[in-house]
Amino acid sequence: xxxxxxSRPALSPRVVIGSLIIKHLCNLVEREAVDQMSENIxxxxxxxxxxxxxxxxxxxSLFVEFRKRLGMENVNAINERIMALKTHVEAxxx
Length: 94
Known about the structure:
Blueprint: H1 13-25, H2 30-39, H3 41-46, H4 62-70, H5 72-93
């Protein structure tokens, strides 16, 4: 990961998009999503981590920044696709 102008490590796009997917598929609020990601080895693997860590991947307030940078149109398109996939998976389970 590179260092941004604010001296913080940049988040990979996989972590950003993966965290949005986890948040919406699991119906979690921002803080719950970050807590789950810091406690669940499977979620960390999904996000591209090479080993388990107890550290949160980022502060929950960054979800707001994700939405700003991606733009509402893109966030809505991602959300719609996630919900369509979730509906499809639930239909397959029945």
